Amino acid sequence: MNKNLKTEKYFHYKISPIKIKIKEGKAKMINEKINNCCCGGKEKFHKIENNNTCPVCKTSGVKVKNITVRHLVVNTLTELVGDTDYYICMNEECDIVYYNPESNVKFNKKQVKMPVWFKKDANPKYACYCSKVTEEQVINAVIKDGAKTVKDIIEITGAMKNSQCEKNNPLGKCCHKIIQEAIDKGLSMK
Ligand SMILES: [Zn+2]
């Protein structure tokens, strides 16, 4: 058996020593990558983790642009916002909305002008922040008016008319996705 292995190795080597070298090089590269993940990468990983977790509930947050935070934090606290970007806490149970791990500035639900739709007890629950269309209105449009698509919702409710999601939506993203989720919710209730 040993003899066979030796012969095989020799055989490959004979045919293509370069190929073997490439293979060895690749294995070395992969090993290095793995090593980086476990040792060198560790520090970086922790850094990212520390940088985006909510200071209260420790859930990973989603980055939100400064312009969005500046626009949605109550006027009396605008000065505190500064000019950096923030994270938003996605945990529905947590009272924290925006936080900046570097400056330690954070804003809770009461310090934000709009109820954040995915937070517990958000009232009203907006599906479209720009045109102030609620999740309830979208669901009603689905159940009562037979709306099926975002386009239908736009026509029936007037959602997304004055799209300025960057300033109005707490995530600073287009309301399209939240509307779709509300439609799905409505369709499932039918
Ligand atoms: Zn939180």
From TrEMBL:
It comes from Geosporobacter subterraneus DSM 17957. NCBIfam families: CopZ_Nterm_CU. This is BFD-like [2Fe-2S] binding domain. InterPro entries: BFD-like_2Fe2S-bd_dom, BFD-like_2Fe2S-bd_dom_sf, Znf_CopZ. CDD domains: CopZ-like_Fer2_BFD-like (cd10141). Residues 128-180 form the BFD-like [2Fe-2S]-binding domain. Residues 51-113 form the CopZ zinc binding domain.
